[in-house]
Design brief:
The complex is a heterodimer.
Chain A (H helix, E strand, L loop, with lengths): L1 H6 L6 H5 L2 H28 L3 H26 L3 H31 L12 H7 L1 H12 L22
Chain B lengths: L4 H11 L2 H30 L3 H26 L6 H24 L4
The chains are: A mainly alpha, B mainly alpha.
Chain lengths: 165, 110
């Protein structure tokens, strides 16, 4: 078997000697086309969308899936343990890190007062900043259970007071 | 294992199959696709009215550099560039976090 592998080509792996390489290349081509299309769509979204939040929406998702498809193509083409391991590490890192970075950018931009697009509907931060008392009341009204007297009949799932603990 | 030379020739011919040439054509076209995407992100970096626009465009630009390295690895059939994939993606994430901290301290004015 070793002589066959050596005769089939200098850098040949087992897939080439077994004749699976054309199928792997077809899979690689398909995933590469999907990844390239997603990358191009993300770039078009970054260039064309109206405000920074919509651009982040386009950029983060499209680049995550696009780089996943392209690394999948590399794994299919070079069926090698080193390539698969590095690709898995890179994909896991990208899937974890891209939403975190985009969330940090969106939070910083939103608190710094970056203007939204004109047709945006929900402006909760502006309403909360305009009336802080009402915002606190809304938040407590969501978490407190609707029972009457909390001293005689304590709420079983009331939000715990952090200072008392 | 006793293998006749015809099987060896078939295995040799399978290496330059139409599927591999299709993959290499896709890689050659994909380099231009990624370059077009990079040009679009550079347009957004130059034109971006606020600072988060430039941040998100540079983040996307880093991911496209990663994609270009992957295409170069497939094209050149060598693993010498493949370590750069993880390194460039880590650098892109760190630069995005630094950009977000900068915006949070300075404000989003261009």
């Amino acid at each position: 078997m070793i002589t066959v592998l050596a005769a089939a080509g200098g850098t040949a792996n087992e897939a080439q000697a077994w004749g699976v390489q054309p199928l792997l290349d077809i899979f690689a081509t398909i995933s590469l086309i999907i990844g390239l299309g997603l990358m191009l769509l993300g770039a078009i979204g970054v260039a064309r969308f109206p405000d920074p939040y919509a651009r982040m929406h386009a950029a983060s998702k499209c680049t995550t899936l696009g780089i996943t498809g392209m690394l999948l193509a590399a794994c299919f083409h070079m069926a090698d343990a080193v390539v698969v391991a590095k690709s898995v590490v890179t994909v896991v890192f990208t899937v974890v890190a891209t939403p975190i970075g985009t969330h940090l950018l969106a939070k910083a931009a939103h608190h710094a007062g970056t203007p939204m697009w004109g047709d945006s509907r929900f402006r909760d931060l502006e309403e909360d900043k305009a009336d802080p008392e009402k915002a606190i009341d809304n938040r407590l009204g969501e978490t407190r259970l609707p029972t009457g007297d909390t001293e005689r009949n304590p709420v079983p799932f009331a939000p715990r007071d952090r200072g008392a603990a | 294992m006793n293998v006749s030379p015809s099987i060896m020739l078939a295995a040799e011919a399978a290496r330059t199959d139409w599927s591999e040439s299709a993959l290499l054509w896709t890689v050659n076209i994909g380099i231009f696709v990624i370059i077009a995407s990079m040009v679009l992100c550079l347009v957004r970096i130059v034109r971006g009215p606020t600072l988060p626009d430039r941040g998100i465009a540079s983040d996307t630009f880093a991911v496209q550099v990663v994609a270009l390295v992957v295409l170069l690895t497939i094209k050149s059939q060598s693993l010498a560039f493949f370590d750069g994939v993880l390194i460039v993606s880590i650098l892109g994430f760190v630069s995005t976090v630094a950009f977000a901290q900068f915006i949070a301290r300075r404000g989003a004015v261009a």
